[in-house]
Amino acid sequence: MSLFGTLRTPRNLVFGAGQRMALPGYAAALGKRALIVTDERLGADAEFLRLVDALTQVGLQTRVFDGTIAELPIECIASAVQAGKAIDADLVIGIGGGSCLDAAKVAAVLLTHGGRISDYYGEFKVPGPVLPLISLPTTSGTGSEVTPVAVVTDPDRAVKVGIASPHIISHTAICDPELTYSCPPGLTAVSGADALTHAIEAFTTMRREPTGAIVHEHVFLGKNVLSDNYALLAISHIAASLKRAVDNGSDVEARERLMLGATMAGLAFGTAGTAAAHAVQYPIGAMTHTPHGAGVAVMMPYVMEFNRRHCEPELADIGRAMGLGAQGTVSAQAGAAIDAVEKLFASVGIPKTIADLGIVRGQLGTVAEQAMGSARLIKNNPRPIELATMATLVEAAFAGDRAALR
């Protein structure tokens, strides 16, 4: 197959310690009335208040919405939209973890196009550009600052649902690792594990035939030469920094490398997409109310094993990016890579099985059925999945039996 690549990225991407102070300059060039979306904890944070003051100093009118709730129930987005309407916002700024950034994205859609959140579920449902978005992540995890997707919790749906459109990619992403220094060890672990899962799934997604219309038919295009580079860069940085950042939150180099890796992983999966690990996590997260990052990380070694015969060379590449030597056959290297991911996740406290997350045997059939409903994820998996094979994957992840997938 000939070389093919696509990137869906912000217009501006700024990375580095202290770069949060670039925010006022970008914001002043984009609007005059800014809705700032964050959560209650950050809304009272001294550094956050300094950023808001810096925006005021350059002439912006600001309105802070600090009611974002983890896992993003749609009711809190409706409140954010009302806050934006109150000042006739012409700019939206998201500051916080993935839920805050996703809330900002969805608020920008509704402030621009109106309607209900459910009008935009799925791919390519946003009809056109939205209010300019600036995103500042405070965790090293979701990569939402650079991706074309926002995920929300809808009480009318059994699992979380996504809005996927190139129109909701941030205009400007400012990634300042200093904003992650206060992130506690547990959140650092699940966020970083989420980011590594993004990179691994992006690098091992199915490679599609690059027709002339592919970029208009799929938001997430599958494996390609441009996303691959970001995925491997992400894997390298995250593998080298995750445990260090969890063990010592003051390790500046680890914090920097982990955030860089998370953003690179966002660039990778924002074009290539993710696959089965994410599909299975959605029902598990809904049933157990456990963090998204923990769920996808628990699934990742099992999904790698499940897909192994369909992407062994890529798994070997992942191992090398993690610092493993190229010993033995490609198959042996692939197996070593899966072992290394499992070991890294265990070292930062990621549970071993979905039973450890709270799933009981009687729920396995429902997990498999609901996972199959995530079409944008299932179609990306390198190994074709049917309900029967999905059930086998879920059973192995419940029993902690990777060998059953070989």
Written description of the protein model:
The chain is an alpha/beta fold and 406 residues long. The chain contains 16 helices and 9 strands. A hairpin with an 8-residue loop joins strand 7 (149-152) and strand 8 (161-164). The radius of gyration is 20 Å and the shape is globular.
Structural descriptors:
alpha/beta; Rossmann fold; Dehydroquinate synthase-like, alpha domain
Element layout with pairings:
Blueprint: E1 12-15, H1 23-30, E2 33-37, H2 40-43, H3 46-57, E3 61-65, H4 74-86, E4 91-96, H5 98-113, E5 122-123, E6 133-137, E7 149-152, E8 161-164, E9 172-175, H6 185-204, H7 214-217, H8 225-247, H9 252-272, H10 276-288, H11 292-307, H12 312-321, H13 330-347, H14 364-372, H15 375-378, H16 387-399
Parallel strand pairs: 1-9, 2-3, 2-4, 4-6, 5-8, 6-9
Antiparallel strand pairs: 7-8
